[in-house]
Amino acid sequence: MLAAAKASREAAKKERAAKRATAAANAEKYAKEYAAADKALVDGKRAAKAAGNFFVQGESKIAFVVRTRG
Description:
Elements: H1 2-51
């Protein structure tokens, strides 16, 4: 009984450690992605200003759908 509980705790501890490592890797990946997006935005603005053009930031694509019945 005691050995089974100890084994269960050890397995749960290893599983939590693996989940934390995965979460940290995902957070780092998303941070890099967001930093790259911000850098691309700044670079686009700077390039447009240097060329004497305007820079228009991309807008979100959204659809508003209404269903009427009857």
